[in-house]
Amino acid sequence: MRLAKKRRAEWMMSSYFHEGREHQVRIAGEWVTATEMGHGEPIVLVSGLAGGEKLLGPLAHLLARDHRVIMYGLRGDRFPSGLARPHHLSDLANDLGELIEQLGLERPTVFGVSFGGAVALELAIEQPHRLGALVVQGVEARFRQTLGATIARRVLERFPLPSDNRFVNQFFNLLHGGKPEPGPLVDFVVERCWETDQSVIAQRIAMLETFDVANRVTQVDVPTLVMAGTRDVIVPPMRQRALAAAIPTAHFELLEGAGHIGFLTHRVEVTRQVRKHIRSLKHSHC
Description:
- There is one protein chain.
- It is built from eleven helices and eight strands.
- It has helices spanning about 5-10, 55-65, 90-100, 115-125, 145-160, 165-175, 185-195, 200-210, 235-245, 260-265, 265-285, and strands at about 20-25, 30-35, 40-45, 70, 110-115, 135, 225-230, 250-255.
- It has an eight-stranded mixed beta sheet with strand order 1-2-4-3-5-6-7-8, sandwiched between helices.
- Helix 5 (about 145-160) runs antiparallel to helix 8 (about 200-210).
């Protein structure tokens, strides 16, 4: 049974972004919108493969009760065929570093999910002075190419698809860690993901196919929290645990019952873990 219209409207982002303050930041020749909400120590959220910053709205809303939260659109979200289209994850990591500098943020916590987690990891390795702490969920040190991901990329590259394509929607459903019950949450995920141009999704999958920081993660020297859903079938928790084990400054937390989008479905627990992580930094500096 679907939830009331009011609840559905909340999922469809009718209110979250109205609370935010917008900044226009020019990165690599493209204007990127950064939305800020809340007050306190800054947290920069880095979005995943599809869905953009709007998919992070419900999580940002909770984190903003105690923190200044900044979300931004990755380059390519607004202008898929732009001349400044990034070609490597390192390009997007440089964008993130530039965003932090232009907004005048002093070593914020950077929280990346899925594809955004890979971007955040790259930044932590190459520009550690930019951030004070790192949080990632749904990422590993080296992308494991699967048949499903390869097929999805080929289909997205070659065939223009309607925005309610059953084949791709099945992939989106995998993000939940199993077949989800129909309702506003499922609608929210599918609708937000389709807001990202399919050519951009395909290119980002290709970027992940060459992503490999397994030999460099030991260089991460900022306090790091790695979270993994127990039902994540995209990046299984054992591989995310291995990432945490390879980072000298990291600790690992399981999100019971969560899939790849635990940052959304289990956002209350994710928020609790992030706040706990940031509090521990304060205590360690006392």
